[in-house]
Design a protein that fits this description.
It contains eight helices and 13 strands. It is α/β, with parallel strands linked by helices. The chain has a domain of 216 residues: Spore Coat Polysaccharide Biosynthesis Protein SpsA, Chain A (Alpha-Beta Complex), CATH 3.90.550. The strands form two sheets. Strands 1, 2, 3, 4, 6, 7, 8, 9, 10, 11 and 12 form an eleven-stranded mixed β-sheet that branches. A two-stranded antiparallel sheet has the order 5-13. The N and C termini lie close together (11 Å). 38% of the residues are buried.
Length: 315
Amino acid sequence: MNRIINHQFAIKNHNNMQPTLFILAAGMGSRYGGLKQLDGLGPNGETIMDYSVFDALRAGFGKIVFVIRKDFEADFRDKVLSKYAHKVPCEVCFQAIDKVPEGCTFNPERAKPWGTNHAVLMGKDLIKEPFAVINADDFYGKESFQVLADYLRSVEGTQGRYCMVGYRVCNTLSENGAVSRGVCTTDADGLLTDVVERTKIEEKDGQIVFTEDGKDTPLAPNTPVSMNMWGFTPEYFQYSEEAFKAFILAHGQELKSEFYIPTLVNDLIAAGKATCKVLDTPSKWFGVTYAEDRPQVVMKINQLIAKGDYPAKLF
């Protein structure tokens, strides 16, 4: 099975421009306990990241870049990169609090880095081609990587034509209670016009609703929501650098302010510097937020293997 799939990778990679997959893996997973990115959930100890890399390779991505914390580099190289070394080029960069623009100062009591778009900025010297950004601890599904790779190949050589995979809200709910999601609004061309964070989305009496100020508002099952799966062209790093410098000057003395991807994307759209296509996917998202989620994720992975979507042993 693996030999056949690897041959398919080779054909796809030979015939097409190869975008890069950028995986945000710098979080320590404090709510879940330990390095959840390295938790084996598949039948042979596969992590959620392993499934993302597998899906990315069969979609035609040609390089993987990880942003991690320096203090678990040895563990990461041993347990993660060693699996992929003979399959795809891999590189590592590091997110740290003190990686700020020259001449900028910040509060010395700050304990955490500066958010998701700060993590993205760490890859600026390693990525020169269209690239996707994902979380390490979310299971995105094979169709999502395919639509993302296809779009990124289509925008090679252009600027400001970004994308986001928009999951149907019905495919992102939790059986353990309400979830927070970025609910997206698009125009007639499928371009993102707005993302609003809704903190309490759940199914009630057969209907999906979000609750705000004690009032339930219905959401159509196919409403697109963001699960932090983005596609960019390389000039996004330059925009990020400029915006981060302004962010640090304004918020550097604060202990918890974070520099987020959606904030910059919204700003670039508003300034007319970029558009963001919302790509529909039938994939069902799942992830491990709390330790109690783990058994369900293991079960869902085994169901996908039984369906034939994945081999029992990935690499």
